[in-house]
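Quick one, tokens below:
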């Protein structure tokens, strides 16, 4: 590794030759000294991970586009960006996702949760209700006896997927009918029970339902992930998640599952459930799993291993 015209007298390293590494990111440094007192340093990184970064595939219920690109870096290997179709809007998540050298990727879990749709499958019904608090004393009078008065009206309009500012539209219509009146209009949006999640951005209000893998929490008014060992499809009731059948848990402690296939066989200690084979697999050499139903095998401590799978 090192050569010198006066001879290398010592080489030291922070790791010894032949040392075993468990999963992790290691920085190896060698320092050499020659007889004249000169020194040189050589350093490099060693990464031991369970597998390589694999490009995720967009879930069939994504309702958008998934773009995966390689990253020319030392810590991250791959990045992914998710965009939504026009009639859908995204969860409040990150702008992009990465898979680092230790294969710590969160994109797959995120894709399982789908996106929140606008309530765009209904048309404006054209219905209009008016509640009036005009006093009974406001009977027709002669022109000479007309006085200032306050009249209040409540307008209830059923609309859907519209970007038209109804407040301005109603105000303009009333102003045309009553050109000498002074108008003060306030508005509010109430969502249908099928689309209870109200979001207001830059003056635009939208009502949405919860995506698969989440349910609507009436007390908090938000979409919450289905707990461990439960799931919810798009067609299931909005307010609850379905439990997995007995002895068929979800993988690990993963929440937010969106279909019954997330419930799988319960693996014994010493094994883990493999999503690719849809079956239990024995822990490989150098790893272990002491609990029943484990999602992955753990690496043995440094300088130790197992005698069998």
């Amino acid at each position: 590794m090192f050569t010198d015209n006066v001879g290398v007298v010592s080489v030291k390293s922070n790791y010894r030759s032949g040392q075993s590494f468990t999963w992790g990111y290691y920085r190896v440094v060698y320092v050499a000294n020659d007889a004249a007192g000169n020194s040189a340093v050589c350093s490099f990184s060693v990464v031991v991970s369970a597998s390589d970064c694999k490009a995720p595939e967009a879930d069939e219920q994504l309702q958008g586009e998934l773009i995966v690109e390689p990253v020319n870096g030392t810590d991250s290997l791959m990045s992914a960006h998710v965009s939504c179709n026009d009639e859908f809007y995204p969860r409040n998540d990150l702008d992009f996702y990465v898979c680092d050298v230790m294969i710590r990727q969160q994109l797959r879990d995120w894709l399982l949760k789908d996106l929140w749709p606008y309530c765009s499958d209904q048309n404006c019904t054209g219905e209009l209700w008016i509640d009036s608090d005009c006093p009974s004393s406001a009977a027709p009078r002669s022109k000479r006896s007309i006085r200032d008065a306050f009249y209040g009206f409540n307008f209830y309009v059923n609309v859907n997927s519209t970007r038209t500012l109804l407040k301005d539209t109603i105000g303009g219509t009333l102003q045309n009918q009553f050109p000498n009146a002074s108008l003060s209009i306030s508005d509010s949006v109430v969502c249908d029970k099928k689309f209870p999640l109200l979001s207001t951005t830059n003056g635009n209000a939208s009502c949405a339902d919860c995506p698969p893998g989440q349910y609507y929490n009436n007390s908090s008014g938000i979409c919450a992930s289905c707990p461990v060992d439960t799931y919810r499809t798009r067609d299931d009731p909005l307010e609850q998640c379905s439990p997995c059948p007995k002895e068929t848990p979800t993988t690990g402690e993963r929440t937010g599952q969106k279909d019954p296939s997330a419930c799988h066989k319960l693996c014994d200690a010493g094994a883990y459930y493999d999503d690719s084979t849809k079956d239990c697999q024995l822990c490989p050499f150098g790893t272990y799993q002491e609990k029943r139903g484990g999602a992955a095998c753990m690496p043995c401590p440094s300088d130790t291993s197992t005698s069998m799978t």
